[in-house]
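Thread: quick sanity check before group meeting

JM: Hey all, I'm pulling together slides for Thursday and realized we never actually wrote out the predicted structure for the chain we discussed last week. Dropping the sequence here so it's in one place. If anyone has concerns about the input, flag it before I start.
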Amino acid sequence: MENWMMDKARSAFLDQVLIALSSNYFGSVPFEEIMEVFYSISSTAVSSSSAIENEAKILDALLELEILGLVVVNYDTDESSLTDLGLEWVRGKILLERLGIF
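JM (edit): ok, ran it. Output follows.
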């Protein structure tokens, strides 16, 4: 049961990072802007964690999302952008929430 809850919490965290990226889905988003948007929408960020720990969690999430094909991370510019698949994921999530399914 604990693993399921951990997976659910991780999934919610990844969703929030995707939503932060969708704030500018026409282009790349600098990491600092992702952090700002993430903190403005996130209830998942642990306030007792240091800023460096929170940044590390978001970087880990970006790498995981890149492996899943939902984002592209530009390591030279420190910017990330949604792929078409990532944008569809965000749209689907918003639709499900509006329908009361999630």
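AS: nice. The first strand starts at residue 29 and ends at 30. DSSP finds four helices and three strands in the chain.
JM: adding both to the slides.
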